[in-house]
């Protein structure tokens, strides 16, 4: 029997990462990395238990190269093989006005989103390079391109992920490795619970004012696209930054 590909998904136990895990479950074994919410991770593993995938949970707070490297070693020993698919979805927000935010919050955000994405990509690429096959999907955001007050550090990392994705894609394309990023708008996850509740309380008109599609995205609106980018069918797509935002980035200037 042909061996399933192994996908390492950081943040794979919640929100968007979990949406990607569900979409990949039919075709891949899954290494789901998370920071420390064990109840949520257990629930995610139970949801995936009915699938044919082998699923292993890897709790580890990722704050830089050292943590990423320990996680990567654990994944390789847990499955006895290297991941051919890497989805970098882990991360939080630390919003606040620039001048009022302690600089350590900016440093942490850059480490957790950008440096961990870079570190895991470098670790996984060594094996992908040899195999002449690999898929990397990163998570940028609409905030990587469009400004929103209070999101200086988040905008910086999400813009950084765009530059990283496009440049890395160029460097590794000749080895059968693709590197792409999704740039979601608002998606209903634990991370966005506050803003989602605010918009839903405000009503449909308020939602439609911000999101042309008129509704808030779900992880299921992201997962299948990420899974497609991770598939053999997507071999000719690399360096793409794909908005998934119900039209929010179209820039409607109104009247
Ligand atoms: N939701 C949106 O509207 C939206 C829009 C654009 C972009 N994004 C991006 O999409 C990605 C996923 O967001 P989400 O909304 O799905 O978030 P989420 O539901 O809060 O899930 C975050 C996941 O990442 C893990 N995680 C967070 N920080 C970590 C760390 N330092 N080390 C290891 N694991 C860590 C969490 O683990 P624990 O559960 O153990 O804490 C959890 O599994 C993020 O990169 C986010 O910036 C989200």
From TrEMBL:
UniProtKB keywords: Oxidoreductase
Keyword set includes Metal-binding: no
Annotated ranges, domain Ketoreductase: 5-190
InterPro entries recorded: KR_dom (IPR057326), NAD(P)-bd_dom_sf (IPR036291), SDR (IPR050259), SDR_fam (IPR002347)
Keyword flag Oxidoreductase: yes
Residue ranges the record marks as coiled coil: none
Pfam families, per database record: adh_short_C2
Gene Ontology MF: a single term: oxidoreductase activity
Stated family: Belongs to the short-chain dehydrogenases/reductases (SDR) family.
Protein known as: Ketoreductase domain-containing protein
């Amino acid at each position: 029997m042909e061996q399933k590909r192994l996908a390492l998904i950081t943040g794979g136990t919640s929100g968007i990462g979990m949406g990607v895990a569900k979409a990949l479950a039919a075709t891949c074994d899954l290494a789901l990395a998370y920071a420390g919410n064990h109840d949520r991770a257990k629930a995610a593993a139970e949801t995936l238990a009915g699938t044919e995938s082998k699923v292993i949970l890897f709790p580890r707070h990722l704050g830089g190269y050292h943590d990423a490297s320990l996680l990567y070693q654990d994944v390789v020993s847990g499955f006895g093989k290297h991941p051919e698919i890497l989805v970098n979805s882990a991360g939080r927000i630390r919003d606040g006005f620039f001048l009022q935010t302690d600089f350590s919050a900016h440093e942490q955000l850059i480490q957790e989103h950008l440096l961990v994405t870079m570190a895991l990509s470098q670790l996984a690429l060594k094996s992908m390079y040899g195999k002449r096959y690999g898929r990397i999907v990163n998570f940028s955001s609409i905030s990587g391109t469009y400004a929103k007050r209070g999101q200086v550090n988040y905008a910086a990392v999400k813009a950084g992920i765009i530059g990283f994705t496009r440049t890395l894609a160029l460097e590794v394309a000749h080895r059968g490795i693709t590197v792409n990023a999704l740039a979601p708008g608002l998606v209903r996850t634990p991370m966005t619970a506050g803003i989602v509740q605010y918009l839903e309380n405000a009503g449909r008109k308020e939602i439609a004012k911000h999101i042309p599609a008129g509704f808030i995205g779900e992880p299921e609106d992201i997962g299948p696209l990420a899974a497609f980018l991770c598939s053999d069918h997507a071999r000719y797509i690399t360096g793409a930054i794909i908005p998934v935002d119900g039209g929010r980035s179209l820039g409607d200037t109104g009247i």
